[in-house]
Design a protein that fits this description.
The complex is a heterodimer of chains A (406) and B (217). Chain A is α+β, with helices and mostly antiparallel strands and 406 residues long. Chain A has 12 helices and 11 strands. In chain A, helix 9 runs antiparallel to helix 11 (363-393). Chain A starts with 5 loop residues before the first helix and ends with a helix. In chain B, a hairpin with a 2-residue loop joins strand 4 (57-62) and strand 5. Classes of the chains: A alpha+beta (406), B alpha/beta (217). The A-B interface holds A 1, 3-5, 8-9, 12-13, 15-16, 302, 304-315, 396-399, 401, 405 and B 44, 47, 50, 52-54, 72-73, 76-77, 79-81, 83, 85, 87, 89, 91, 93-96, 100, 103-105, 107-109, 113, 115, 150.
Chain lengths: 406, 217
């Protein structure tokens, strides 16, 4: 049998006003949920893009002139793009003194609704296993492992497992590795050796529902690694400028541009979420303050009786304060559960609609993000309940009892 | 045991004089009945003795302590252990059932919870089987009996009963008076206000109150 005492009274009293308490809980939940959702989306977007930039592995990426926007979008949302330029550009880029290494890539879109392709409408990236410095370092296990002509590396979002066989344009590939998720468009990409991409194009007329138009000597992009400054290297922005000035057929993408683009894409959503939370915040604080001020007034007689039974002032203070905190905690828990569930549950949809990557936060990161939002809700509840609690605690028992009678 | 000297108390900035130079001595274990019309100051007097309000003037000693000199936390603790209060109007906490209402003072008095004693008191009040009832589920008489049981649970040496039988049926009145008389028999000092002249005979001493002044009846 539970002993009547502080927590017992709080529990009993909270049960007494389910509707009023539900309103307070919902307001706190809205505040916490909006804060947590904004923090989660912001964090996931930034983390995703950082991971993506690391995954990209290149200091610069050269593409045909004017297509840097298209490739940026594709890196972010995974929608395949195809464009080609002359492979000779790679040699010209490699000749610049500040360039340490280059590696060519070719972008292919798998067919849609075709039996010759295991995954429809995905981005296939042909890379040069011999010169590559962007893809293989991310292979789990042995980054130096050779990727054979009939092998593919796949992004996490495609749901494939190592050892499976996938088929594109009628050509089979064994999945040699699966990349960890970044939340970027690259999660939906399939990497195959460049020579196999050309062979696949050659054979596609016979093996696929539709031929792949790609000729040897065509590439889509050149990944560029710059020399360190002490070896004659340049900062990325200077190198990009030098390359674009000297080679008018190319645009040079700096991976940091992806971060800027992501921040731009996220800004409006985050601003909306934060603006909503800034509106909900004072409303919630006001509501809690008002509800508990009214409750303190309406329960004057009850507090007077408790004081007459021997309750100390601090007991009355704690009674009201902890009731408010219990509601704030319940609201915070509800808000966190809903926002976390919705944001993480619909992360893919969010990433698509925001055109931003989404990398799930780790357990510690998630805890810190959620704890911050919860702390705000609890602090709001505490601040709002402080005055009503202090006022009720200061009542003279006799006045409180008589006041309640009138 | 209870000693008031020259106690005055007013409300409304001095416009309403509730107690006017009241002095009272009640020995330990005595049963004192105070009669008087409504508004004569009876309730205020009990609240002053219980340390629930401070008079403007005078001295109040209860159980050997000058309660007006006690700091608020000590006064609360003193009230929890030494005073059992029965209020004129319904006073059960609405969200606690009868049994929990009776048990609650034990918490404030720092005593071990004793549901058995609480049930026994409710039984003595004729409320066996009504332990789980809330205030709004009880009749006025039953509710008042629960309040009496609550005032007695701690075994406080002083019971202040403000019109405990007012407007009640004869059965409830008899049950309450029996409980108070038994508590008095166990050594508790009872100060009871009432409109009912018939109850004066149950007390060892009867006082009358009029316009805030106390006199022997």
């Amino acid at each position: 049998m539970n002993r009547p005492g502080l927590l017992f009274l709080i529990r009993a009293n909270l049960r007494r006003r389910p509707f009023r308490n539900a309103i307070v809980v919902l307001c706190v939940a809205a505040l916490t949920g909006l804060q947590a959702a904004a923090a989660l989306i912001d964090h996931a977007g930034r983390k995703g893009i950082q991971l993506g930039i690391e995954r990209l592995g290149a200091d610069l990426v050269a593409v045909p002139r004017g297509l840097d926007e298209a490739i940026t979008r594709s890196y972010l949302d995974g929608r395949p793009v195809t464009f080609y330029m002359d492979a000779g550009l790679e040699r010209r880029i490699a000749a610049f003194p500040f360039v340490a290494r280059t590696s060519a890539q070719v972008f292919i879109r798998s067919l849609s609704g075709a039996a010759c392709c295991s995954a429809w409408n995905v981005m296939l990236i042909g890379f040069e296993p011999e010169s590559d410095f962007t893809v293989r370092p991310w292979l789990a296990g042995d980054p130096r492992r050779r990727v054979g002509p009939d092998e593919a590396l796949v992004g996490a979002a495609l749901g494939m497992a190592a050892g499976e066989t996938v088929r594109f344009y009628g050509r089979p590939f064994r999945v040699a590795g699966v990349f960890a998720a970044t939340g970027m468009g690259l999660d939906s990409a399939v990497f195959i050796p460049l020579s196999s991409a050309y062979a696949m194009a050659r054979e596609s007329a016979a093996k696929a529902e539709a031929p792949l138009t790609l000729a040897p000597g065509q590439i889509s992009a050149v990944a560029i690694a710059l020399k360190p400054p002490e070896q004659g290297g340049l900062p990325a922005y200077r190198a990009a400028y030098e390359l674009e000035t000297a080679l008018p057929d190319i645009s040079v993408l700096q991976p940091d541009d992806l971060l800027v683009k992501t921040e731009h894409n996220l800004r409006r959503t985050l601003q909306s979420l934060r603006a909503a939370s800034y509106i909900v915040w004072p409303v919630t604080a006001l509501l809690i303050g008002l509800v508990f001020a009214l409750a303190a007034n309406e329960r004057r007689r009850e507090f007077g009786l408790l004081r007459a039974l021997g309750a100390e002032r601090r007991f009355i203070f704690r009674l009201i304060f902890l009731e408010a905190m219990a509601l704030a905690a319940a609201g915070a828990a509800l808000g966190l559960a809903l926002s976390t569930g919705l944001v993480l549950g619909f992360s893919r949809l969010l990433a698509e609609s925001l055109a931003a990557p989404f990398a799930r936060p780790g357990v510690v990161e998630l805890f810190i993000l959620l704890a911050s939002a919860a702390a705000l809700a609890l602090a709001t509840g505490a601040a709002a309940a402080l005055y009503p609690a202090a006022r009720a605690a200061g009542l003279d028992p006799y006045e409180a009892i008589r006041g309640g009678e009138s | 045991m209870i000693r008031l000297v020259g106690v005055s108390k007013s409300y409304g900035g001095g416009r309403i004089r509730a107690l006017s130079d009241v002095s009272l001595e009640a020995a330990a274990g005595s049963f004192v009945v105070i009669t008087g019309p409504s508004g004569s100051g009876k309730t205020t007097l009990l609240h002053v003795i219980g340390g629930m309000t401070r008079p403007e003037r005078g001295e109040v000693q209860v159980a050997g302590k000058s309660i007006l000199l006690l700091p608020v936390p000590e006064l609360s603790a003193f009230r929890a252990r030494a005073i059992g209060m029965i209020f004129q109007l319904p006073s059960l906490l609405p969200h606690l059932d009868a049994l929990d209402n009776v048990r609650l003072p034990l918490y404030f008095a720092g005593r071990t919870d004793d549901p058995t004693a609480a049930r026994a008191l409710l039984r003595a009040a004729g409320l066996e089987g009504r332990e789980a009832a809330f205030g709004h589920e009880l009749s006025a008489g039953q509710e008042r009996r629960v309040a009496v049981a609550r005032a007695l649970i701690v075994g406080a040496p002083i019971i202040l009963a403000d019109e405990p039988t007012g407007d009640l049926d004869p059965d409830s009145e008899a049950a309450i008076m029996k409980m108070l008389t038994e508590a008095n028999g166990r050594g508790a000092t009872i100060i009871m206000t009432t409109h009912n002249p018939a109850l004066r005979s149950r007390a060892g001493r009867s006082l009358a109150m009029k316009d805030g002044r106390l006199s022997e009846d």
